[in-house]
Amino acid sequence: xxxxxxxxxxxxxxxxxxxxxxxxxxxxxxxxxxxxxxxxxxxxxxxxxxxxxxxxxxxxxxxxxxxxxxxxxxxxxxxxxxxxxxxxxxxxxxxxxxxxxxxxxxxxxxxxxxxxxxxxxxxxxxxxxxxxxxxxxxxxxxxxxxxxxxxxxxxxxxxxxxxxxxxxxxxxxxxxxxxxxxxxxxxxxxxxxxxxxxxxxxxxxxxxxxxxxxxxxxxxxxxxxxxxxxxxxxxxxxxxxxxxxxxxxxxxxxxxxxxxxxxxxxxxxxxxxxxxxxxxxxxxxxxxxxxxxxxxxxxxxxxxxxxxxxxxxxxxxxxxxxxxxxxxxxxxxxxxxxxxxxxxxxxxxxxxxxxxxxxxxxxxxxxxxxxxxxxxxxxxxxxxxxxxxxxxxxxxxxxxxxxxxxxxxxxxxxxxxxxxxxxxxxxxxxxxxxxxxxxxxxxxxxxxxxxxxxxxxxxxxxxxxxxxxxx
Length: 471
Fold this sequence. Notes:
Elements: H1 13-16, E1 24-28, E2 32-37, E3 45-48, E4 51-56, E5 59-63, H2 66-70, E6 77-79, H3 91-103, H4 124-136, E7 145-149, H5 156-168, E8 173-178, H6 179-186, E9 192-197, E10 202-208, E11 211-212, E12 218-220, H7 224-237, E13 250-254, E14 263-266, H8 277-294, H9 314-319, E15 324-327, E16 333-336, H10 339-345, H11 368-377, H12 384-388, E17 391-394, H13 403-414, E18 422-423, H14 428-432, H15 434-444, E19 453-454, H16 455-461, H17 465-469
Parallel strand pairs: 1-7, 7-8, 9-17, 17-18
Antiparallel strand pairs: 1-2, 2-3, 4-5, 4-6, 8-19, 9-10, 10-11, 10-12, 13-14, 15-16
């Protein structure tokens, strides 16, 4: 393939794997890594982005997968190769994590080295054959790989994935796609304003005719983990404080009345073997996730800190609404009333945010309505009404009850003229895995085969070809 070849000319079948071979789609995020075959409805492999770090003599052992990160082994630590801003900080750990997501569920696990598996003598013939065996072990030799990236990813963060896919894993072809564009595709739209509320960040991505408008792409840390921090502050400032004890510290518990102190037997560890604080934080997050799914809701109509049509405050009105019960792992339980609205209110109104020394109050321009307003101000005025009529809300944290209705009210107040329409999948799987589903749709299209970056092109142009081809 020559340097001047057009994207419209399809490479021959051998260069990208051929029509009969399914491409793989890998969608790494801060919370989970999703992987699966193009053309399927849901990812077969959903692996936590967190991994366990275990002391092993003088070295540290890295273990991946759901079971590894939730077992309270001695001195266990928890790591994550991705920063809260969505950038990969540890490429070695990221490569191993992504490879685990692929090989554990999607392709055959690597064959063990015949020189070290105890079944063969260490002969010279085996040594000579090892180079060929290593080539056979690469996990993606038959499958092109489409990988997703954040809208603000740049530089090395774009070039490193193609190096990993084509050099380490032996993939015949590669493509890098923006997650916001894929979320729009998953909703069946070529043009949309994608609002993605994930674990570590919320992003707004304007998409026009299948192209991300980079100038209007904006993000904020007010997302799922921020709501968890608000809940921690609500629990710690309650009178009396509400305990947040994760499951692994409880050996038994006795039922108690609502609001009464818990009566539980707590687990103890031998001196010097306690799991690291990072392990406890992850286990606390599991409890908070359950709380968010079953209790937390968004207040509407109006703002929680505002006044209603009867002249009273919405806070007083919220106190009269039916409360929701929740039981902590240690047996403590109570009814949660206004607190269930308070935790998420600052996504719309920063005046209602709780803060302390380690959790500073957010700024007004980080709220959802302000983010959307700023994003739209950066795009051509002619396409703003079309984007407002095609708002796609996705991400696991967008599943909080009442969020879409409140967002629609806020945007209609900001833009009384144009029609505001919000599209959001009712199916939980489609909402959480929207960018993967968009990638699955894209990579399975017959017309997409001409887009792949082949191994031959990569060898000619190097990793910089991603910047030229994957806009």
